[in-house]
Amino acid sequence: ANNQPCWLYQLSKAGKLCVPAMNVNDSVTKQKFDNLYCCRESILDGLKRTTDVMFGGKQVVVCGYGEVGKGCCSALKALGAIVCVTEIDPICALQACMDGFKVVKLNEVVRQMDMVITCTGNKNVVTREHLDRMKNGCIVCNMGHSNTEIDVASLRTPELTWERVRSQVDHVIWPDGKRVILLAEGRLLNLSCSTVPSFVLSITATTQALALIELYNAPEGRYKQDVYLLPKKMDEYVASLHLPNFDAHLTELSDEQAKYMGLNKNGPFKPNYYRYDRCSKTTHHDFDYVQYTHFYCNVV
């Protein structure tokens, strides 16, 4: 749910990237654990801390079904919310359908929603037109990128009144008395209104540290002024460092099994195209991944 890597690839394509860069955000250990598992918990934590809302029976639309959106939808559904999803990507949309979520357009359902949650990494996902059509008491928040997803600037007009209810919670009041509950002024809910578990921070920080060590220790010429993903072997190493917290014991391949699978007994254990559970771009790396992302950014 973060568009910074795409921005890096755009700089690289334009020849404006001055140094080699590691795209940590799209590494497996960042996407799966920070974006999916952490957001699955922090969405509930942030909403409870700010609104004390009861989730059972609430109509919720989650904009975006990437890793963050998947985590949010999973958590909300588990507590009895009626969740639907908006998507631009047909593959993610099909995943949402197969996971039991109705895929809709925001402008078709916004009047009925009790909560609107953005997780796209894009801008102006929720516009003033959407906000005008929301019902009284609708909760609006962002789990995606920066403060660009909700058009908060459009709400700072003379006809609307802002009332600060508590820290990070504003009621935006329309002339007819309707109130929309805006959390963290459209900034990231999980960073503004909830805590991030130290375990997840450890995974992400370890990934970042290894990326820096790799760039620093790499022999001259290994990395050009381009964008790279962390080698899969390092992703696996980050995961292995955190397994003792769960008293987890890995099974070891026999020589015969490793030969049959064409693997090194010590890893990496998956080919570059392996997608780890759900559709993800995280396992394509180096030049193949750069070419794919250049194409993707240009198309989008």
From TrEMBL:
<keyword id="KW-0520">NAD</keyword>
<protein>
    <submittedName>
        <fullName>Adenosylhomocysteinase-like 1</fullName>
    </submittedName>
</protein>
<dbReference type="GO" id="GO:0006730">
    <property type="term" value="P:one-carbon metabolic process"/>
</dbReference>
<dbReference type="InterPro" id="IPR015878">
    <property type="entry name" value="Ado_hCys_hydrolase_NAD-bd"/>
</dbReference>
<dbReference type="Pfam" id="PF05221">
    <property type="entry name" value="AdoHcyase"/>
</dbReference>
<dbReference type="GO" id="GO:0005829">
    <property type="term" value="C:cytosol"/>
</dbReference>
<dbReference type="Pfam" id="PF00670">
    <property type="entry name" value="AdoHcyase_NAD"/>
</dbReference>
<dbReference type="InterPro" id="IPR020082">
    <property type="entry name" value="S-Ado-L-homoCys_hydrolase_CS"/>
</dbReference>
<keyword id="KW-0554">One-carbon metabolism</keyword>
<comment type="similarity">
    <text>Belongs to the adenosylhomocysteinase family.</text>
</comment>
<feature type="domain" description="S-adenosyl-L-homocysteine hydrolase NAD binding">
    <location>
        <begin position="35"/>
        <end position="196"/>
    </location>
</feature>
<dbReference type="InterPro" id="IPR036291">
    <property type="entry name" value="NAD(P)-bd_dom_sf"/>
</dbReference>
<dbReference type="InterPro" id="IPR042172">
    <property type="entry name" value="Adenosylhomocyst_ase-like_sf"/>
</dbReference>
<dbReference type="GO" id="GO:0033353">
    <property type="term" value="P:S-adenosylmethionine cycle"/>
</dbReference>
<dbReference type="InterPro" id="IPR000043">
    <property type="entry name" value="Adenosylhomocysteinase-like"/>
</dbReference>
